[in-house]
Structure formats: structure tokens, C-alpha cells
Specification:
The two termini are 54 Å apart. α18 packs antiparallel against α24. The protein folds into 4 domains: 39 residues; 77 residues, Elongation Factor Tu (Ef-tu), domain 3 (Beta Barrel); 293 residues, Periplasmic binding protein-like II (D-Maltodextrin-Binding Protein, domain 2, 3-Layer(aba) Sandwich), CATH 3.40.190; 228 residues, MetI-like fold (Orthogonal Bundle), CATH 1.10.3720. 37% of the residues are buried. β3 and β4 form a beta hairpin. By secondary structure, the chain is of the alpha/beta class.
């Protein structure tokens, strides 16, 4: 009984005073906990703040008024009551047309109506003009072309062309506008030829190869033929008039061909052994460098063309269609203006007037098509609608001269606007010459599909910046992954503890070198090295290859350190079990250790990719300044981070279009790195091994 008494007493005391396991309050631990909580909350709120700023400014980039200078000034003074005004024509007005608001000075106006009165003329040859006129809608859409309303032609339309046009309901109506003399020309430096017979002309453009084959005494030099392209009406006319419609011998002589008569003239000027033909007006424009040849003693002139004694005279036309003329009044008015003023312009251009009978016939065709009794005077300032012409390069100068007169007389783009869009007090007078600005809001589709990034002209395609970023990151990973993983395997599996304890800190010290040093290392060492290997002409001074290689060197310590930690964490028992089964050290590393540490290695790779994508100074210094959509790593290009660093460090106006654009780029960069980090967590959870 005595032996049990102390136990009983202890039990009684325990019932009276229960054991307390409650943690005692310690001030220093509470301070540490509050500090850690504050750090965590601060980190979360900072991240959220960054996301909000990027998101807010990016939304502003896509939704706010981004005023862009159209480089098209108003052409007359505007007082407070003006609601219709004209501007200088130009292709930049296509963006203005799509905008619902414009700005002149600081006054914002609502566009009620925009008349894009512009004349577009393409010199594609007579045959090319008829092909374009009578092409299917899908064919024009694929080429990004508009169907012409007027065709310039240096020959009559062919039956085949009439048949093709008829399938689309187009019936070509000819309007004779002048006469041309086909000029046979050589270089002014040619000192052995001044005239030809018609037979010699056939020989030169037929079977002859050398000048000595044509006439005795001429040099034994090869003849270089310079001729218009096969889509040209000039080509068709020459072949029909000189070669009896068979171009085989002409084409067999390997001639220089172009639809641009100015290019033909330049080719003849530079070669004394060359000979060619084109419209008389192009000879006049280059008469100091060219020499025109008489045929059978007859030189082209107004008299010889009119009486037909010059063998290579030909009619000039413009063509249109009755339905086009009736349905598009601007075409009716322009052709009327053309026929009324053509004789005033045709001689100035360098051609010859059509006969009175031919011109009267053209005016009669116009009256039949329009149902009008006569050609009434046209006021171009009252004409609305775009005009599109295509066809003969010979007729091109004449149509261009008439169109210039048409524009000078008032045919210009016009705006009808509502003023005081933001309050009546914003209405103000404006002097002629003030630029019209249009509201250009980039879209997400444009942002991620356009291959040009030029904010100054409204081009907002981030693809070149993303492409350069991915190129440098890919090159960096090709350098860093094998070297970093190899270093990690060596440190974990082959190095002695002493070597590992010495080498790993040294490797990690590389991560502490400022990236600006790496940037200049890429520029002053890596780029000269690449240029010595591949050639100075091949490798630009600024290129993505050298930047990518040095970024790879930068992230080697990151990959090696994280991968080595993952390899080192693999239990030693797995290695010993592998050795016990007879595996070598290399087999154990490749087939046991690396697979066991795969989640950590993959996480290291993805973190390294994020680091490469976000690198700034190296790419800003070594890769280049200026977005360039190129897949050549030896070309210069600008990454997303490099672009942000460059333009934000310059004269960047606050709240400007450039200012907002860097936040949109920054948000895109954030989403890319966020996606990679989220992918890293998925990979870790998928491949993680528990021991």
C-alpha cells in the first residue's frame, strides 16, 4: 500500500492541475509572423497592381482615340460655318474613309459623308488591261485589285477579248483619243545607224543575230532587242504590222522585255548595240539620250502620221462599258471631260491629234451610251466617286495628263462633317494646309496577325517582336540546355564533394554578372566571331544569333543549379539498386537518376525559358533596334523587351500612341511568361516522384 501511495497522489494532483499544451505568446515570433504576412500580401498586391496597370493601359491602347496624321491637308480655309471641305488626294485616305471621326487642328468632327475622289491609273499593257477588266471577281480579290472602269488601249480590242468580256456582261465601247507614231530608237551613242528600210526592220527583229547580218559595213556585234512585254498593245501592234502576226522569231532572240517604257528607254540608252520600240511620247521624254530612226526615209511627225506615209502610225483609244457609264456617273463625267479636252493635251504629251471624224465618232459613242444629246461642260468639283483605269503604257501619259487637269479643276476627296462633336465651343476656323487626322484603333486581330510594327503610320503588328523574342530564346535554349544539364549531371554524379563544393558556387557567381556586361560581350566578341566564321556580308553587326548565344550563356547557371538540386535529391538507394543489377554509372545516370529527377529538370528548363524571354539588356544591345520580321538569325531584329527599353528611353510623349503600345507589348510578354510558369507547375505535378 505504501508503494502505491505516491502514484495515487500524483494522479490526484494531475486531476487538480491539468497539463497545458497551449503555446505561450512570444513577442518576437509574433513580429516575425506579421512581417512575413505583410511580405506575402505586398507581393500579391504588387502583382495585382502590375496586372491592373498593364491591363488598363492595354485596354486604352485598343479603345482610346489614337489620332494619326493622314498627311493630307485641307485645301482651302475653313471658317466656323464650313461643313464640306476638300483635301489633297492620296492612298492614305483609305484609313480616313473607314474612320467615323476626324480631327482638324484640335477640333474633332463627325464624318457624315466621305467622297474618296481619287484617280488610280495602272500601266499594265493593253492586253493586261483587258485581262484585268474582264477577270472574275475572285481573281481580282486574290490579287487585291479593283476592276477598272476605263481601259487605256494602243490597239483595238480583239474578238477573243470581246468574248471574254461578254461572259461578264461587259461590252467594250471604243473612244478614239489620238494617234501615235511607234518610235524605232537606238542609243544616242550609236554612230553607225540613222535610218532603216522596212525590210531591214523586219530582219533586225526577225532572223538577224548581229548588226553585220543586216547591212554590210555595220559592226560585227550582237543585236540587243529591247521591246515591250507581251501584254502590251504596242507589242501586239508591232508584231502585226512588221512581223505578219508571228512573234516567234522576235521572242527567240532573247529580247529585254518590260511593260514600263521608261525602263525600256533606260536599257537602250546604256547599250549602243541595242534597238527597241515604244510610243513616240517616251522618245520625246528621252530624246537627249536616244536617236529615232526614219523608215524608208520617212520620220514620224504630225504630217506623216496624218497622211499615213509613216508606216508605224496607230490609233489610241480609251474603252469603257455602257452600264458602267450609266451606273457610275463619275465615269460618264470623266470621259466627257476627256473627249472635250483631249486635243489640248495630246500634243503636249507627245502624240498626234485624232482626225475630226474619229473624234466626232468617239463623242457620238458617248452620247449613245449616256442618252445625252451633247457633251455638256463638266465641273469636276461636283463629281463624286473613285476612278480606276488600267492598260496601255502608251496611252498612260495622256490619261494621266487629263486626270491631272481634272484634279486641278476640283476633283478631290471631300468630307461632309458635323462640327462641334465635343461641344460647340470646339468649333474653330482652320487655315488651308492643316493636316487631317483620323482615329485609328488597332484591333486584336491586327495586333496578332500584322507583320509590321510601325506605330507612326498606324501599323500595329506584334508578330515581328514576338518572332525575334522566340528566335533569341530558342537559340539561347539550344546553348543553355545541353551545357547546363551536362554541368548539373557532372556536379551531382561525377564530381567529388570537394570539387562540387568549389565548382557550384563559382558557376552560380556567373549569374551575378550584370546583363549589360553580357550585352557588350555579345556585341564586341560574339558578333565578330560569327562574322569571321560566316562572313561580314552575311552577318549583320546587330543580329539575333549573337544575342541568343549570350543569353544562353547567361542562363546556364540557372539550369545547372536547379537541375543539380533535382538530381542530388534522388535517393542514393536508387543508384545502389541500379549498381546491384549490374548497370554502369552512365546507365544509372541516364536510365535511373535523370528520369527520377525529371520533374525538377523540366521545371528548370521552363524557368530558364521564361528568363530568356524576359531578358532585356543583352537583346537591346546586340540584337538590333527596329522590328524586322525575319527568320534569319544573322539579321538584325528587335525583341519585345528590347523594343520596350528602346522607345521608353527616348522622347516618348506621355499618353501617346507609342506610350500605350508598350503596355500592350508588356501584357503580351506577361501572358507568355505566365503561361510558361503555369505549364511548369503542371509538369512538376505530372512527373513528380515521391520517395
Amino acid at each position: 500500500m505504501r508503494d502505491q501511495q505516491p502514484s495515487t497522489q500524483y494522479a490526484v494532483q494531475s486531476e487538480r492541475r491539468p497539463l497545458s499544451l497551449k503555446r505561450k505568446f512570444k513577442l518576437h515570433e509574433a513580429v516575425i509572423q506579421v512581417g512575413l504576412l505583410a511580405c506575402g500580401l505586398l507581393s500579391i498586391f504588387t502583382t495585382l497592381g502590375i496586372i491592373l496597370v498593364l491591363g488598363n493601359e492595354s485596354i486604352s491602347f485598343f479603345t482610346r482615340d489614337q489620332w494619326v496624321n493622314s498627311n493630307r491637308p485641307i485645301l482651302s480655309d475653313m471658317d466656323e460655318a464650313t461643313t464640306i471641305f476638300t483635301v489633297a488626294p492620296g492612298k492614305a485616305l483609305a484609313a480616313v474613309e473607314a474612320s467615323g471621326a476626324i480631327r482638324v487642328g484640335q477640333e474633332v468632327m463627325q464624318v457624315l459623308e466621305f467622297q474618296n475622289n481619287q484617280f488610280d491609273i495602272a500601266a499594265v499593257g493593253t492586253g493586261g488591261g483587258f485581262k484585268r477588266w474582264c477577270a472574275l471577281d475572285v481573281e481580282l480579290a486574290e490579287l487585291g485589285l479593283r476592276r477598272p472602269q476605263i481601259i487605256n488601249a494602243s490597239r483595238p480590242v480583239t474578238p477573243r477579248e470581246i468574248e471574254r468580256c461578254a461572259s461578264l456582261g461587259i461590252q467594250p465601247i471604243p473612244f478614239r483619243v489620238g494617234t501615235d507614231a511607234l518610235a524605232i530608237v537606238v542609243s544616242a551613242n550609236n554612230d553607225f545607224i540613222t535610218e532603216l528600210s522596212f525590210g531591214e526592220l523586219q530582219t533586225i527583229f526577225g532572223e538577224a543575230d548581229r548588226w553585220s547580218d543586216v547591212r554590210a559595213g555595220w559592226p560585227d556585234e550582237a543585236i540587243q532587242l529591247v521591246i515591250p512585254g507581251q501584254d502590251s498593245g504596242t507589242f501586239d501592234f508591232f508584231v502585226e504590222a512588221v512581223l505578219d502576226g508571228d512573234p516567234a522569231a522576235l521572242l527567240a532572240n532573247d529580247p529585254i522585255m518590260s511593260e514600263n517604257d521608261n525602263q525600256l528607254a533606260g536599257s537602250i540608252q546604256r547599250n549602243p548595240s541595242a534597238i527597241g520600240f515604244f510610243g513616240y511620247a517616251y522618245y520625246l521624254a528621252n530624246m537627249d539620250e536616244l536617236k529615232i530612226l526614219a523608215l524608208d526615209g520617212v520620220a514620224p511627225s504630225a504630217a506623216t502620221v496624218e497622211d499615213g506615209s509613216y508606216a508605224l502610225s496607230r490609233p489610241l483609244f480609251i474603252y469603257s462599258d455602257a452600264d458602267i457609264i450609266r451606273e457610275q456617273p463619275q465615269v460618264k463625267h470623266f470621259i466627257s471631260y476627256y473627249l472635250k479636252h483631249v486635243n489640248e493635251a495630246v500634243v503636249d504629251v507627245g502624240y498626234f491629234k485624232a482626225s475630226s471624224e474619229a473624234l466626232a465618232k468617239a463623242r457620238e459613242e458617248w452620247m449613245i451610251a449616256t442618252g445625252a444629246a451633247d457633251l455638256k461642260p463638266v465641273n469636276p468639283a461636283e463629281v463624286s466617286g473613285a476612278l480606276v483605269a488600267a492598260g496601255s503604257s502608251t496611252v498612260f501619259p495622256l490619261t494621266e495628263r487629263i486626270s491631272e487637269r481634272f484634279v486641278e479643276a476640283g476633283y478631290r476627296p471631300r468630307f461632309k462633317v458635323r462640327r462641334g462633336l465635343r461641344g460647340e465651343n470646339t468649333i474653330a476656323p482652320h487655315s488651308a494646309g492643316v493636316a487631317v487626322e483620323y482615329n485609328d484603333r488597332p484591333t486584336l486581330v491586327e495586333f496578332f496577325t500584322n507583320t509590321n510594327w510601325i506605330p507612326a503610320i498606324g501599323e500595329f503588328g506584334v508578330i515581328p517582336l514576338i518572332n525575334a523574342t522566340l528566335m533569341t530564346s530558342t537559340i539561347a535554349m539550344l546553348v543553355a540546355l545541353p551545357l547546363g544539364l551536362g554541368a548539373a549531371i557532372y556536379l551531382s554524379e561525377y564530381a567529388s564533394p570537394r570539387v562540387r563544393n568549389w565548382l557550384k558556387p563559382v558557376l552560380e557567381i556567373l549569374a551575378g554578372i550584370p546583363t549589360v556586361v553580357y550585352g557588350y560581350f555579345a556585341l564586341t566578341f560574339m558578333t565578330p566571331l560569327l562574322r569571321s566564321i560566316f562572313g561580314i556580308e552575311v552577318v549583320n553587326i546587330y543580329n539575333t544569333a549573337s544575342a541568343g548565344i549570350v543569353v544562353g550563356i547567361l542562363i546556364i547557371p540557372l539550369i545547372s543549379s536547379m537541375s543539380e538540386d533535382a538530381l542530388h535529391a534522388v535517393p542514393q538507394s536508387l543508384r545502389e539498386a541500379s549498381y546491384g543489377l549490374g548497370a554502369t554509372k552512365l546507365e544509372t545516370v541516364i536510365k535511373v537518376v535523370v528520369p527520377a529527377a525529371l520533374s525538377g529538370i523540366l521545371a528548370a528548363f521552363i524557368v530558364a525559358v521564361s528568363r530568356a524571354i524576359g531578358e532585356t539588356m543583352i537583346v537591346a544591345i546586340a540584337a538590333g533596334a527596329g522590328p524586322n520580321f525575319s527568320f534569319n538569325p544573322l539579321d538584325s531584329a528587335e525583341t519585345m523587351t528590347g523594343h520596350i527599353a528602346r522607345i521608353s528611353g527616348g522622347d516618348l510623349s506621355y499618353d501617346s500612341i507609342d506610350y500605350n503600345s508598350i503596355f500592350a507589348i508588356g501584357l503580351t510578354l506577361f501572358l507568355m511568361t505566365f503561361t510558361l510558369n503555369a505549364l511548369s507547375r503542371v509538369i512538376i505535378s505530372r512527373f513528380r516522384e515521391a520517395y
